[in-house]
Amino acid sequence: MFAAQSLTRPALLRSLVSKRSISTTCPKWSDALFVHRDTKYNNPAIAFEFTADNLKRAEEIISRYPSQYRKAAVIPLLDLGQRQNKGWTSISVMNYVAKLLGMPPMRVYEVATFYTMFNREPIGDNFVQVCTTTPCMLQGSTDILNTVCSHLGGIKPGDTTQDGKFTVIEVECQGACSNAPMMVVNDDFYEDLTAATTKKVLDAFAQGQKPKPGPQTGRHTSENSAGLTALTSKPYGPGEFCTPEFS
Q: Out of the domains of life, which is the source (predicted)?
């Protein structure tokens, strides 16, 4: 109070203006779950352990690493557990992997919450991931995403259909930019999509079939649709075009 009285009015104003007020930012909800909350379908009381075949597979994976680095197998073991657990990684899966590898459970939680390949909530029989990153967006991925959602009953990204057959999410780059637009269904890529071919792929999965993955336009991989423009002649073999001493 006395210090304030000793200041002139302009100096006092400058002093007040220079002080920073407390500010906060608006919280934003994320589509990913990073904090576990026990539910009826996801809690530590629900038992989980590998089947005999998966346990054998897990032991083979662990054997690839030096004994002091067995914890490096956490990602492939979580993936194995997720596949056994109908496509999602529950708290029981994480705890089991932690015990199997002799790791603190928190270290396993850190991995499972960092990598988007691990689903923290149950998913449908077919997991549809539609890429909407720039290359795909420029090729019409917005139309593909809208087609998927409308064709599956008007669901939104992040939803599962009522019959439990499909879960749809919007994802970042899947690495098939030259064949955009594309989507991933379970473990397979479906590329060069149109609204019509997208519906065809979804209908096949809905009927329990597995359509051929890859480009849906007929091209073999990612060759130029106008045909070859390079490497059109027979490649030369070893020793050709070398100086005589190297022939």
A: Eukaryota
